[in-house]
Amino acid sequence: MVKTDREPDGTAQGRPTTDRPLGGPTSSTNSTGPTTSTVPTTGFDALDRQLVHALQLDGRAPFSRIAAVLGVSDQTVARRYTRHRTTGALKVLGLADARALGEIEWMVRVQCTPDAAVSVAEALARRSDTSWVSLMSGGTEIAAVCRAASSDHSDALLLQKLPRTPSVVGVTAHCLLHEFFGGPQGLISKSGALTDTQIAELSPPPPNPPAAPATLTDADRRLLDALAQDGRTPLGELAAVTGWSPTTVRRRLAELRADGVLYYDVDYDLRQFGHGVMVALWLSVAPAELAATGEALAGHPEVAFACATTGPNNLFASVLCRDVGALYTYLTTRVAALPGVRAMESAPRIRHIKGAGPLVTLSPAASGRRR
Q1: Nearest to 266 by CA among 129, 144, 106, 84
Q2: What is the pLDDT of residues 133-146, one digit of tens each?
Q3: Residues 194-199: what's their mean pLDDT?
Q4: Dihedral sign, Cα of residue 22, residue 28, residue 34, residue 35
Q5: What are the φ and ψ backbone dihedral angles of 71, each rounded to 5 degrees?
Q6: Which whole number is the average pLDDT over 15-36?
Q7: How far apart are CA 267 and CA 89, in angstroms?
Q8: What's the N-to-C CA distance of the chain in angstroms?
Q9: 218-229 and 246-258 helices cross at what angle (nearest 10)?
């Protein structure tokens, strides 16, 4: 029996054992299937969807507060969360925002020979500075997001740290310039699971715009590492990891959140929401239309992540659809109506390797949410 007793901040003490992956620059959302065979495929019901949306707004919100807003008991919320967390259908991640830390993100595409693609992708996924690692198209291209401490370190990241093997036949990298949709915003935000009133009651205050990149201590990094594994890690465990008191941990969590360094994301099985296809969409947009097109694209219910990048294809999106028929309809209607689009490239993701959080398993199955 999994315990659901809560810490003073309302987080569950029960720690489920399974995780699930994403849908990277192919992140929020993460993917198309579960990491284990125990995840049901019947779909979340209305209350499950409300719970996912609530956790997307505030991943460490006490179950009592979520329950009050949803109009159910604390025990019902705790039971739902524990069941889905245990099966790998749902997980809260506490993540560090790259821009708040002054880091640079690169969207990398690696072309490989078919026999080496999986091993190269897994090598990339094992790195702590990568996320959203996926096999694309016919299994000869890998998509990943790589983070560098600054632009001065980007050359070392891309030229020295990527796998060196004759099987890698090409690498392209594009700097992420502006995020139109993603980070603390998830695809569930567009679902209508919660009313505007419920969203207002559960949403924390917006973070303060940072005047300068934040500086982290070693204890801060240990805290963030633990939250990346499980965003609802109890205060007592976080205190043991950092060497701080629970009160200090609580205060530091609030500070990092207020400064925009820490945000919470929900990784969940996309099949529960009826999504069967994830596609990386690269658009070439006239510079004068880039901002307007990016904002319009971000508003599409099919778009889980959207950003402007360097390169000839200067607008990227992760698109989730029910099936290939729905994808065709989306491309020929919503995308076709976007202003300033001069060219389009699309690539389906065929295997998810790693999501936004640390690598837990190299299962060929996939689940998830964004990018």
Answers
A1: 84
A2: 999 987 889 999 99
A3: 97
A4: positive
A5: 75, 30
A6: 34
A7: 8
A8: 35
A9: 80
